Amino acid sequence: MTTAPSGSVVVGVDQSAGARAALEWAAAEAQRRAAALRIACSWNSLDHELPEDYQQLMQEPAQQATAGFLSETATELRARYPDLDIGTVTMAETPAEGLIALAGAADLLVVGRRGLNTLLTVLLGSVSQQVVAHSPVPVVVVPETPAPAAPEAPVVVGVAREVTEPLAFAFAEAELRGAPLIAVRSWALANPYVVASPEAVTEIEADEDRELRSLVDVVHRRHPSVEVGTRVEFATAEAALIEAAKGAGLVVLGRHRRHMRYGLPLGRVPHRVLHLSDLPVVVVPN
């Protein structure tokens, strides 16, 4: 498979409501960036291989149906975005494999997220989770029904120690949108059963704030027009981000992928934020 054009926005679609939300977000973002948009869909959604005779029998109709769906989707979108360079890609790989390969030269990969299950928790979906964990470029996960946000709503970014990639992305995005940026850092006691004195709490928060501002200042110099605010919270990182993102337009954080044989392919923070946020969330490789 060839990769998408350099600097483009790639969006993975199917016929779900979450994919439709992702497509709408991706088109608006591509227009904002004056970038090409590539709409991709896989005709091969099987997780296992069929006997060769069955593969040959199913391949052509599946390819034709996928190509027809993509053509209709692109035609409808071109009517609303006549100046946007819109192309389609029919992928033979499974959705996650195809999107990761396609996104190699792109600036951004966009996927949808499912709705709520019966326990009122969101379903990230296996494709979205695989793409977020392994994509070489930033991935935007768009909820099925994103919370309403003004175009100039703040961009909220979680800032971990000695990690600047999410900050760089967030500053560039805030500048593009003409929006302010809110940089968030959380802290917690090493021992949750120990009560810190007010003086100790003040000292910890001052240290965290100083480190946060030093990281922010380095990137801010490259984007001096962006209005910046900082927040240091005594909370878990995911709780601090979700709270700071109320009224925001976008959440940005690092992938923090775990290099472990067992356990989640993502760190705890991006995994939980992706499941809890009602905003589009950008996960940046670092």
UniProtKB/TrEMBL annotation:
InterPro entries membership: Rossmann-like_a/b/a_fold, Universal_stress_UspA, UspA
Domain (UspA): residue spans on this chain: 9-143, 166-285
PANTHER family the UniProt entry points to: STRESS RESPONSE PROTEIN NHAX (PTHR46268), UNIVERSAL STRESS PROTEIN UP12 (PTHR46268:SF6)
Protein family: Belongs to the universal stress protein A family.
Protein name, UniProt field: Nucleotide-binding universal stress protein, UspA family
